[in-house]
Amino acid sequence: MNKITLTEVVSRGLKMTKENRASMLGIGPMSKMLIKAGILLAKEKDFPLMFIASRNQVDSKELGGGYVCNWDQKAFSDAIKNIADETGFKGMYYLCRDHGGPWQRDKERKEHLSEKDAMELGKQSYIADLENGFDLLHIDPTKDPYIVGKAIDVNVVLRRTVELIEYVEKERLVRGLPEISYEVGTEETNGGLTSVESYEFFIQELMKELDKKNLPHPCFIVGQTGTLTRLTENIGHFNAEASRELSAVAEKYGVGLKEHNGDYQDEGILLGHPALGITAMNVAPEYGTVETRAYLKLVELEEMLYREKVISKKSNLKNCIRREAVTSRRWEKWMTDDTVSKTTEELLQNEEIISIITDISGHYTFNNEIVKKEIENLFENLSEAGINAEKYVIYKLKESLDKYVECFNLPGYTSRLLSMK
After folding, report:
1. pTM of this structure
2. Would you say 48 and 414 are in contact if contact means Cβ atoms under 8 Å apart?
3. 6-285+400-418 in CATH: which number?
4. For 84-131, how does the pLDDT look when each residue is reduced to its tens digit (9 = 90+)?
5. What residues does each domain of the chain span?
6. Of 17, 206, 220, 371, which one is least surrounded by beta carbons within 10 A?
């Protein structure tokens, strides 16, 4: 199948009739299992895939690698291609960098790197993205450890954004690589794009600066629609009026409104996304929770079958994944109370907190050797009873993905896009 750029995807989508429009889904690649589920569903329902990897999830080995399968950009790209080949998927998929740029790795913020050093590392990461076939780069220079509790000056955001796009374009041309697409802006309130007025001002000024340097316009500009993910719910308040106004502003400049933090929203709200003009939305932690819950459900089954002597042994996955999740401390950014102030030893004495932490951050442990081994043991034990455990996990992930696919009018979207001239 001929693959068109995401810039062209957005352009064609904006020209569609209301009945044919869709909101695209950005899938945080929380695991290899999720990627496989996404590809299988896209094969069944004919929609383009966007896999959106943060720098913490996937990055070059020199910068610390990523927690998802310890993938760098090449391994990430190769894994998706291999799964597509194995499943016979011939449709369109896009490798996307989510929140690329300075200070976007947790380690870089904790170390309070200077702006110069942080920008250099952000650029280094983008080069690895370029060289490994990424289709979309999110330029997000708003994570700044020196500015806490207030909005970054929009002129600083503009300056850094233009500098990064200019650098990437120069390096792309030097390497003779094909055109790529860009996403700019952030859902974070410290990014400053929290009102329709500031959103349009940012777009106007950005386009002006990009045009001066003959640089490409972005295809997505992130806007704040009111969403905010914490624990396993969206504690924000989706604002339909703001979403409609933001999308109208974006469309006026030929770009698409991108929504982040879309996890756990009500299906009624999701159904309204195409009608409100939201071009795309990102979902990530929800899928990690779905997969974690699937493993724990299989553990319950394993324990029952072991008690009934249907299988001869059982894994230690439940205890293992719970302990690893707590000790990782990766859950801290998702919590809403004073749990982060407690020591790991204190937390491991509290059954309720252990369960909550595992639910929201079990996926951070999937690549830990001890957890991987126990998942293998679980699958092997259940196979003794004729149960295909992987098939069940894939089913639960596809079920979660399909909610968005159906609500966003995505079935058949690839064919609709390619039929347009």
Report:
1. 0.94
2. yes
3. 3.20.20.70
4. 999 999 999 999 999 999 999 989 999 999 999 999 999 999 999 999
5. 6-285+400-418, 288-396
6. 17
